[in-house]
Amino acid sequence: MIQVEGLSKKFGDFTAVDNISFRVDSGEIVGFLGPNGAGKTTTMRILSSYIAPTSGKASVGGFDVVRNSLEVRKRIGYMPESIPFYTEMRVKEYLSFRAKLKGVARKERRNRIAFVSERCRIKEFENKIIGHLSKGQRQRVGLADAIIHNPPILILDEPTIGLDPHQIKQTRELIKELGKDHTVILSTHILPEVGMLCNRVIIIHQGRIAAMDTLSNLVKEQRIKVEIQGPISDIENTLKQIENVKSVSYTTDNLWNIITIELSEVRDIREQVYQKIMENRWIIREFKTERTTLEDIFIKITAREEGTSSAGA
Ligand SMILES: Nc1ncnc2c1ncn2[C@@H]1O[C@H](COP(=O)(O)OP(=O)(O)OP(=O)(O)O)[C@@H](O)[C@H]1O
Ligand SMILES: [Mg+2]
Prior knowledge:
The protein has 11 helices and 14 strands. By secondary structure, the chain is α/β, with parallel strands linked by helices. It folds into 2 domains: 2-218, Rossmann fold (3-Layer(aba) Sandwich); 222-291, 2-Layer Sandwich (Alpha-Beta Plaits), CATH 3.30.70.1340. The strands form 3 sheets. It has a 6-stranded mixed sheet with strand order 6-7-8-3-9-10, with helices on both faces. Strands 2-1-4-5 form a 4-stranded antiparallel sheet, with helices on one face.
């Protein structure tokens, strides 16, 4: 449905998007993650045919984003980071104006507006002037605008930013609902949101794809935490020899060594660890298994190369 190959975008000599490739299949809800300035918005704008890439290719439903931008726009509902509203218009008027601009046939417009008003729950303020709306209400109008021409694909740039907890919940529910019959790419800085909404995650860092996988694959790593007393170099060497142990690190707290054992694959090695501790007569006071969270992955990936820039800026 969406195919991206070797896509780059430069602003002057600054590389904002650096040779990225990925695809999104029909029906997927893909989360775009990455620190500020990673290139998420830039990529989304290219996919929505708002800006042209410097090199590489992107197509939507088989249509090239540069050569067939009209066809691409028909298929994409784009909700930008900051929605450029006509603040003096009334909501209904605005949606009608947008529907016209997006080529919705005159006789269908009224129906489409009623439909999106219902779906995005904007009925109760559809006669209000946009300038008078609350932030969350504007956000919903932005979403209504994105789906007014009934596109199969939604590209939502931080759709829940700045909303109160109720509105965040409502907007997520709406996105989830829309995800049933739309292909969705959304960006967010709220990591738990990804777990709630997305099947797959693309982490962008310094313009490049740093990780791309299903959420369950990304967070399948496990580690074991033990707190033991004993000579740390012996402990370290012994634990490192257990099969599937990737690394052993520790901090100390008085006599206690607080040890983290990272595993190279998901395998339950608790018995072996416990056996080694017993054999060596080390004293133990804590033993637990932890799963990697998306936050761990995100921090690990995006802390890499911190301070250096792929983009030469
Ligand atoms: N029109 C532009 N001219 C110059 N530089 C730009 C332009 N648009 C974006 N950039 C730069 O490209 C980089 C990527 O920006 P982008 O908006 O894609 O980041 P982002 O991942 O969406 O970040 P955020 O999480 O803050 O929204 C940034 O360093 C930004 O300053
Ligand atoms: Mg952005």
